[in-house]
Amino acid sequence: MDYTLRMLRTGTVEVPYPEVYWMERFQDWTALEFQMAVIQGGGKTVVVNTGFPEDISGIAQAWRDYLGERAVLRRPDEWKTAAALRSAGIDPASVDFVLLTPLQLYATGNLRLFPKARICVSRRGWIEDIIAPTYPHHVPRAGCLSDADLHWLIGDNQANFQLLEDVQEVLPGLVCRWAGVHHRSSMLVEVQTARGLAILSDCAFHFANVEELRPLGIAESIIEAHGVYRDIRARARHFIPLYEPKIHERYPGGIVA
Questions:
Q1: Please, are residues 227 and 247 in contact by the beta-carbon 8 Å criterion?
Q2: Total number of domains constituting the chain
Q3: Which of 236, 227, 229 is nearest to 204 (CA)?
Q4: First to last CA, the chain
Q5: How many C-beta atoms surround the C-beta of residue 63 within 10 A?
Q6: CATH assignment of the domain containing 8
Q7: What does the alpha-carbon distance between residue 29 and residue 16 come to, in Å, rounded to a whole number?
Q8: pLDDT at 168
Q9: What is the pLDDT of residues 181-236, one digit of tens each?
Q10: Domain ranges, residue 234
Q11: What is the C-alpha to C-alpha distance for residues 178 and 188, in angstroms, rounded to an integer?
Q12: For residue 225, what is the enclosing H or E element?
């Protein structure tokens, strides 16, 4: 099964350079551009991440407080999740699967736009980021998933909530693989396309993290980064970091395949 793959912007912010590249250029800043993916094939529509919540003021203030005044989160109206999907001809109510990597508010902000979708997350990530963290994380649980969405996922939406094993085929030719590196809930989303295997992930923020083997700065494991990046380089025809601002230059219109 070959799928089509298109990337849609959901927000942008500048961050200190060492957040993206471990122990590099402490005086510099670089850009992130958050992305949502639309995967289609075999009569199915899959969305990777759901974008920022409608009200981004809380996240924006928290990031400025943590990173500095230059870290200004911007999200034009046309990048809001519903509008971005409409521009790609996608009705959220028709989406079959939503894959989340990682469990953070910029990925989980619009879960209930997808009333019929199966919401899929890493089982390991769900346990270690949400239920029973094994060490103090730099993002509190409320920064992963709102209280309302947490209750909805395990309450009214429980029948459509799926915990994925470390390697699991979601659909023929579409595999999720636990990655770690950035968060315990970070995965690789591996998509077979007519242009070869595409791998999407937040385990790296920029192309250069993987292409030049420069580990992510804001990582929970540099050791995991080296292993996962080498695996991606060995297998992927296209690697799509989910915060790379150059995606739409390398792939005009965000169309990977």
A1: no
A2: 1
A3: 229
A4: 13
A5: 18
A6: 3.60.15.10
A7: 4
A8: 98
A9: 999 999 999 999 999 999 999 999 999 999 999 999 999 999 999 999 999 999 99
A10: 4-254
A11: 6
A12: helix 222-235
